[in-house]
Design goal:
The chain is α/β, with parallel strands linked by helices. It has one domain: Rossmann fold (3-Layer(aba) Sandwich), CATH 3.40.50.620. The protein contains 7 helices and 5 strands. The chain has a 5-stranded parallel beta sheet, with helices on both faces. Helix 1 links the parallel strand 1 and strand 2. Helix 5 packs parallel to helix 7. The radius of gyration is 16 Å and the shape is globular. The termini are far apart. About 3% of the residues have low confidence.
Length: 147
Amino acid sequence: MKPTTILVPTDFSDASLEAKAYGVTLAKAFGASLHLIHVLTDPVTLGWGVEQAYLPQMLERIEADARAQLEALSPPAERKALDVQVSVEIGSPAEKILAYADGHGVDMIVMGTHGRGAVERLWVGSVTERVLRHASCPVVSVRRLRS
């Protein structure tokens, strides 16, 4: 099958930037549009102890910064050629990635993996692993090549 919409979730790490490069290559090869998403974990669930009155202002600023970073990932010519869409979501990364993919007709997800060990995955979990298990479309997992 030929994908028409490719989603690249990013946390701005080296692994996710490498996945973005793969996503661009695949989008060009298939003539697909490219969607970039960054998911912010809800600060309330992190227990930051932020005063509730300041939370909306803080989230607005963090979202704006993340959107600017997403937009900076693609030069204007690339944005136009691949119809690049950017989205910043708040919540559980795996859940938001899966919901975005289902809601936007995504045919393929290309995402980086940090290559953590089994013990760390047991305690921390893996967003990529959760997306691989639950996505309704193919998922390409890109591991950062070591220099």
